[in-house]
Amino acid sequence: MSRTRARALDAAIELLGTRGLHALTHGKVDVEAGLPKGSTSNHFRTRDALVRGVVERLEELDRGDWADLNGLEVSTVEGLVDTLALFVSEMTTTHRRRTVARYTLSMEATHNLEVRASLNRGHDLLRTLVVEILTDLGAAAPRTAARTLLAYADGLIMHALLRPEAVEPRGQLLRVTRACLSP
Fold first, then answer.
1. Cα–Cα distances in Å, from 107 out to 44, 48, 76, 95, 115?
2. Among 33, 101, 116, 183, whose CB has the most other CB atoms within 10 angstroms?
């Protein structure tokens, strides 16, 4: 990916994460990225192409984050819970704007099949990772457990985005994780 294209997409994510879908215009992306006027439209001729580019960039960034998760200790229930708590924390603090951008695009995905497919690819990657971990931990139904655990994590993330003063979710995560591992 060219440097200009990456700058435009990162600026678009910043706009979506701070100002919403209405702020996603070629001109505003150029300004946010500090690019010459028309740069974004040279790479993304239409707004739909820009949205697709943003979704693909989010997927690329997520893959990097999830690869980092592979290096964490998840061979115990406590290790998995610590990793999930870190994930929720990172998504609502360090990567808050990216998370808000993803949720903003989730609404777009309700009627845009390409956006939905890309967002689903990212979710499927994470779910596959969690299924593998839960299988290794002895879950009787790892796919169902992963779906439940990720839905709970999504709820925690949404809650923390809307109420930043939310409490540390580790205790709740531990209870839900143990319930997911129970036969």
1. 21, 14, 36, 19, 10
2. 101
